[in-house]
Amino acid sequence: MIEQLQALQERALARLQEVAANEDLARFENWRVEFLGKKGELSTALRAMGSLSAAERPLVGQVVNDVRAALESAYTAAYAQCLAVVQLRQEESEALDVTLAGRTPFVGAEHPLQKVIRRIEEIFVGFGFTVEEGPEVELDYYNFEAMNFPKDHPARDMQDTFFVGPDLLLRTHTSPVQARTMEKRHPQVPVRIIAPGKTYRRDDDDATHSHAFSQVEGLVIDHGVRMSDLKGMLLAFARQMYGENQEVRLRPSFFPFTEPSAELDVRCIYCGGSGCNTCKQTGWIEILGCGMVHPNVLRMGGYDPAQVSGFAFGMGVERVAMLLYQVTDIRQFYLNDLRLLQQFVGLIR
Ligand code: DAH
Q1: For 133, which of 82, 97, 277, 295 is 20 to 30 Å away at the CA?
Q2: Which CATH number is associated with domain 112-344?
Q3: E strand or H helix at 316, and its extent?
Q4: Which mutation among 255, 290, 298 tests ligand 1's pocket best, with the greatest number of atoms within 8 A of CB?
Q5: What integer pLDDT is reported at residue 291 of this predicted model?
Q6: Whole-model pTM above 0.90?
Q7: Strands 191-200 and 130-131
Q8: Residue 344 in contact with residue 110, Cβ under 8 Å?
Q9: Could you count the other beta carbons within 10 Å of the beta carbon of residue 238?
Q10: Cβ proximity of 300 and 292 under 8 Å
Q11: What H or E segment, with its residue span, contains residue 301?
């Protein structure tokens, strides 16, 4: 029995060396269970002692204890050594080389359309306007009805619409935010809001048309608001946007929700008015539609057109951005081409 125990010790130590050579901490546990565990070889040997004579028992018991002590101390030493090696290797692999040259982090840029919207907002907030928002999926009522397009009115043809349901659509302009604001605020005056946002029309995309585009709506309601107020404010806006000497003109137009209606042209910012391809030799470039809020629109919004009046305008953000940044194809704004976007890194405006 004693020889068996000594053989066991030798075998166990040999295996421990193999385990240690593997430098894998999990294998140490397997070894421990196999040789020192409750069901391990040494415990089995200990149980076999029951069959020994009273004289042999203390002798063999002593050897069992010696073997256990030898295995335990060998195990502890080998495990500690292996742990040190594994930890060192891990630390080395996680080490930071503080002498390495830094990598420049990628800096994103505000999208040119977002930049323009922010600039427009800044200008109008400076005039005392607040910023409103409305849903892109809109009710027919707000998009058309409340904007004085009765059902079957031919002016609905001006705006090819994506319908989502019988009375639900992707808004074709930001004008419904006018109706929503009036509904919320009436009969309070003054109302001075702008509403930037996405709009959608069933257009075939080309260099100047996109089925998704952006507008900034404006609405002012107060006592005694006049067309000259509209013109003065748009002139002030154009001068902040394009420069101190910017000229503008109002040209008669038609919108169902304004009467009278007009479009605002700015002097061509490229040729200064002498005529070029951008302004199609006219010397002027249209940037927005506007007018005095139609009495029907005021009435539907809960205001009394005998008491208050208002003006409104709606501008195409892409149009403004194309002029400002000399982008010639509207699709550029939606392609997410980094070569375009990176040109705006670090630009404030
Ligand atoms: N909603 C018009 C459009 O999308 C633009 C517009 C014109 C808005 C005149 C207005 C306005 O508020 O008064 O074509």
Answers
A1: 295
A2: 3.30.930.10
A3: strand 309-316
A4: 255
A5: 98
A6: no
A7: parallel
A8: yes
A9: 21
A10: no
A11: none
